[in-house]
Amino acid sequence: QPQLVESGGGLVQPGGSLRLSCVVSGYTLDRYAIGWFRQAPGKEREGVSCISSSDGSTYYADSVKGRFTISRDNAKNTAYLQMNSLKPEDTAVYYCAAVPQIHHHGSRWSSEYEYDFWGQGTQVTVSS
User: Fold this and answer.
1) Minimal CA–CA distance to 79: which of 121, 125, 32?
2) Is residue 35 classed exposed, middle or buried when 0-12, 13-18 and 19+ CB atoms within 10 A define those classes?
3) What SS3 class is residue 26?
4) Tens digits of residue pLDDT in 83-120
5) pLDDT tens digits for 41-60?
6) Considering only CA atoms, which of 43, 29, 35, 3 is closest in space to residue 106?
7) How many CB atoms lie within 10 A of CB 69?
8) 125 exposed, middle or buried (CB, 10 Å; 0-12, 13-18, 19+)?
9) Which residue of 56, 68, 90, 93 has the lowest C-beta tally within 10 Å?
10) 88: phi > 0 → left, psi -120 to 50 → alpha, else beta; which?
11) DSSP conformation class of 4
């Protein structure tokens, strides 16, 4: 089964930017839809964004539209989440997740139950 490893988290001031990476090993990335989720202390895990592998369709939570951009580089087996104009409420542990494209349903992209494989997470803290 594929293994996912996130990186790129850290401490950033409000208004700053970070780029998260999700490296997939064990399988080729082009067979998987990739989702990004986050979980803040005391809150449920929520879907942030998703990118399909079939046509590159992208999906975003309303709270991050216009600020976050998801992308993928299949040659590098890596997916990315570019986060701009960060706010304190973006503080959370961010996870990437994968589901075989043949099992992916765009309408359910934000449900954690849609995904089969998960990374360990990377902490993002937005604070002055």
Assistant:
1) 32
2) buried
3) coil
4) 999 999 999 999 999 999 888 888 899 999 999 999 99
5) 999 999 999 999 988 899 99
6) 35
7) 16
8) middle
9) 56
10) alpha
11) E
Chain position carrying tokens 């359910």? 108
- In the numeric block, which tokens belong to residue 39? 């979980």
CB 50 within 8 A of CB 70: yes
Please tell me the distance from the alpha carbon of residue 93 to that of residue 39, in angstroms, as a whole number.
5
The terminus-to-terminus CA distance of the chain in angstroms comes to 40
**pLDDT given for residue 12 in this prediction:** 98
Q: Positive or negative CA dihedral for 118, 95, 123, 71?
A: positive
Q: What are 28's two structure tokens?
A: 């080729």
Predicted confidence at residue 115, as pLDDT, reads 96
- Residue 94's SS3 state is strand
